[in-house]
Specification:
Blueprint: H1 26-62, E1 67-71, H2 72-77, E2 87-90, E3 96-100, E4 103-107, E5 112-117
Antiparallel strand pairs: 1-5, 2-3, 3-4, 4-5
């Protein structure tokens, strides 16, 4: 009988059982996969953090209003990142709104923005 020369991809222990087995247990399998995906997970986590922060800033600025107009600089001062949004909406006038989930803004002239909250029934 031939000796098993396969070892765990995480800890290096000899493997017993199926010939295509790669890990000795669930802990080693999870550790391996977490290491493999850590760069991708960090990127996704960082982008999600920016999106959540942007949403929070828009929500706080709007308070109970459905829409308000304010200088773009006010958003920047709060740490709003204009590079990230969840989606865009173009209205019938051809104006493009940039959204972070249900909160969005429309760039206006002279570095002003119109903040809006999307109607949840749409």
């Amino acid at each position: 009988m031939e000796a098993n020369t396969h070892t765990c991809l995480t800890c290096g222990k000899p493997l017993k059982g199926r010939i295509d087995k790669k890990f000795c247990d669930d802990y080693c399998r999870n550790s391996f996969n977490n290491r493999q995906n850590s760069d991708q997970n960090n990127l996704v986590r960082n982008v999600n953090n920016v999106l959540r922060k942007n949403r929070r800033i828009l929500r706080e600025m709007l308070a109970e209003e459905r829409m308000i107009k304010l200088p773009k600089e006010k958003l920047s001062q709060q740490g709003f990142n204009f590079k990230y949004q969840t989606h865009q909406y173009v209205n019938h006038k051809g104006q493009t709104y940039f959204f972070n989930y249900e909160y969005g803004y429309l760039p206006l002239e002279s570095d002003w923005v119109l903040l809006v909250k999307r109607n949840p029934n749409l």
